[in-house]
């Protein structure tokens, strides 16, 4: 029987390889992973903060616990359990060289769920990343593997579904695999922008052009520019017949009938997904919540398999003639939108200067203030930045430095930079041990434990904003939703976590001296009653130990009856 099974896998691999060679992507090999029609809440390549969306978000009609099915035969090769990100996820490796991923799940199928639970209790750790051998959990096409949910970094019930190349781990666009999702709607264009490329797309930034709907296409009046070196960006969304605003799959830019730039989002590796910040107008996206995609390369954007090689999209206007511009946008079904306009150079040019401490792509740079040192790698920026760093007073009595203003939060960085801060006073060893750096980037804060290099505190960040050195002696804590000693008849225990600065980075719960499995949901901790604490088991003591980013540890006890 085993020989027959492996022979069938081999035949399947050969047959599907032929289909793949003919069509580039396998057609109709994978089935819908839900029992309801596929409707998209998000597609592959949609714009997200600091990353492309790497799969399909399938709508579950705002419901949880829908059956999730294996898209094809294979075996469970990996599971993840994590607070953010995928939440609970299953990876299935298939015999044709692909792996499918199913995320934000509530529960795995029974035998797998029990295996994971036993591992969690053995490790005394809720978060898990487990890999499996082919014979441990084989699955058939259409077999139920999980229940859908809303776990991890999910904003509402749905199923996140990915198709990956097993060998390279690149995420592939699932819409290229022949799923039956009706779509006869072309992309919708709502804005066109031009950028002065003599120095940087960030300065002075986007220049908006009004767009008009003209019949089946779009147009704009003649674009008169005051720079001979320009590029364009487009604001657009795609839509399936039912669903949300989706990302653009493919775009082309032509001048005087000649193709000068194109991009197509077929595959992306997670190692490269942050390069989205060099494909969009990051400032507009973060500050104004506008998704504008560049129709040109930025010098520090190194995403592979995205834009056509040797076509930069940067236009060098050599004359004051009127030139024809055409933008062509397509979805995976071939639905197409076109925008036509013209561009003309006005030679009354404004002077462009690069002042200040310029950070440029492909060159490392260290910038200093009186009490700080900021070190950028050669991969730090996508376009030139007139980087301005300075210090200003901080009134917080727990602060051990001035506020360090690092340009502004509307300019992206690709990788981590190193920030060194010299405290504004002599710190004791105890204070050093509780020192953190706090980066405020407007919409949120990032807090890291510092490392000490003599009298300099060091931290790493991958966003810009305002940073300060803080001494944090405050204890983290959790609060219960029941009165001490009360009888708890509901199905779970909920503990709400709080900490003044940073995050609760360590949580341990013990029921009557034994580790108890609490799941973490954002800042809350939830235990669902099971055989570890059955009804009628009497009085119990719950001991909870938490630690925060600074390393402050708190031990609390709660009592209840069951």
TrEMBL record:
Which residues, if any, are the signal sequence? 1-21
Q: Which UniProt keywords apply?
A: Signal
Annotated M23ase beta-sheet core domain residues:
52-120, 132-167
Q: Does the keyword Signal apply?
A: yes
InterPro entries cross-referenced by the UniProt entry? Cell_wall_metabolism_enzyme (IPR050570), Dup_hybrid_motif (IPR011055), M23ase_b-sheet_dom (IPR016047)
Give GO terms: molecular function aspect only: metalloendopeptidase activity
User: What CDD domains does its record include?
Assistant: M23_peptidase (cd12797)
Note the superkingdom of the native organism.
Bacteria
**Full protein name:** Metalloendopeptidase
Tell me the organism's taxonomic lineage: Bacteria, Pseudomonadati, Bacteroidota, Flavobacteriia, Flavobacteriales
